[in-house]
Amino acid sequence: MQTAQKISPCDKAKSAPATGHIRFLQFLNRHGRWVVVFSLFLALAAWEAAARLWNFPAFILPRPAQVAQRFLRALLDGSLIRNSAFTLLEVLLGLLIGSLAATVLGYFLARSHLLDRLLSPYLVASQAIPIVAIAPLLVIWFGSGIFSKILICSLIVFFPVLVNTIVGLRAVPENLRDLMRSLRATRWQMLCYLELPAALPVLLGGLRIGATLSVIGAVVGELVGSDIGLGFLVNVARGQYDTALVFVAVFTLIAMALSLYGLVVLLEKRLLAWQNCSGGY
Predict the structure, then answer these.
(1) CATH number of 64-275
(2) What is the per-residue pLDDT across 53-74, written as a single tens digit (0 to 9) for each?
(3) Could you state, in order of their start, the residue ranges of all structural domains in the chain?
(4) Any alpha helices (H) in 54-173, and if so which ranges?
(5) Measured between alpha carbons, how far is 41 from 49 in angstroms, rounded to an integer?
(6) Fewest beta carbons within 10 Å, which of 1, 94, 209, 253?
């Protein structure tokens, strides 16, 4: 006959924090969107309180209402839309070119250890140079037009996507490669039906990072030398001590980066839907 196990008060005290932690995580999971909205409301309230408490002038710290009014003015006069569209074009082209180049080169580096040994030192050394340091050179060499901004975006996107591509391709199990060889699969079939699907989760993780970094690359290029774009808008507003317009441009860049990140997440869910299906068996 089994005896009931007694639970001491000390065990109850130890399990209480764990239970509370689990309940808190469950609450966040159920009400995650409202938590985000509430945190944004708290941030705006703290911003408004700081501006009122220390009575900062508008050119030091404008209030949220002043930033909202400046946003409406920039939106109505077309300056915000025009500059945002140009920056978004640079970001999308730079992200596309940088990701494609990194994926192609990453495939060859993952397949050839000799090529990896030859190029890896130069690729790693290139990351030791801040993009802010070489951006003026690129603007001088290629002009202040859109090409230099796309190039800067591509360079800043290139390395994260490259590393994730190499890691993802080298993580493909060798027994699956042997299976494809036994089926006499061509190199193209092995790439399409084995290597890319297996490396896709890691590759898309690099694309998430690249999507946010591409916005930084575009702004850096525009800050160095441009006559249009959100970086140019920041330069103009800074020269005029229009700090509210600086906030408008910064918040627009944040929204752009979050939107690109969200699109990559949606793409990841769409392309990796087979993982959820296979997990049910």
Answers:
(1) 1.10.3720.10
(2) 888 887 888 888 888 888 999 8
(3) 9-53, 64-275
(4) 64-76, 79-111, 113-126, 131-142, 146-170
(5) 12
(6) 1
